[in-house]
Specification:
The protein is an alpha+beta fold and 131 residues long. Helix content is 24%, strand content 44%.
Length: 131
């Protein structure tokens, strides 16, 4: 398992920052799964976050642990429509299966973040690279 996935497991909810024109946007997320050695994330095709990542795939993700450490993952969103990635996320979060179904008309779009940097940052002191 990757250090990024391990970090997300320890934190639960994490925050993804995107750009909307010249305005940063930040939102909590929790849908992810590790497949083929990469951590994939899921967002709805009808949501602004998806549209923002398509328009400008540069993004950052932040996850905070209870001990005060936090991870900053900086990179570029790379979408992949292979259904095995959405299925892996549904296995982890089965409650999303009804939200993203032919009946709902919504599709889960899956992506990984091609990291420029992933750093574990303590409350005090220098960070440690996770990639």
């Amino acid at each position: 398992m990757s250090k990024i996935t391990e970090y997300l497991q320890a934190t639960g909810t994490f925050f993804l920052a995107t750009v909307d024109g010249d305005q940063p946007r930040l939102r909590p997320l929790g849908a992810y799964a590790e497949v083929d050695g990469l951590t994939y994330f899921g967002v709805g095709d009808y949501k602004d976050v998806y549209k923002q990542l398509v328009a400008n795939p540069k993004c950052e993700l932040v996850a905070c642990k209870a001990d005060g450490h936090w991870m900053r993952l900086t990179g570029v969103a790379k979408f992949d429509d292979d259904p095995k990635y959405a299925e892996a996320i549904f296995q982890f979060m089965p409650n999303l299966r009804d939200l993203y179904s032919p009946e709902s008309g919504h599709i889960m779009k899956t992506f990984y973040i091609d990291p420029v940097a992933a750093v574990d940052i303590p409350v005090m002191g220098p960070g440690e690279s996770l990639v």
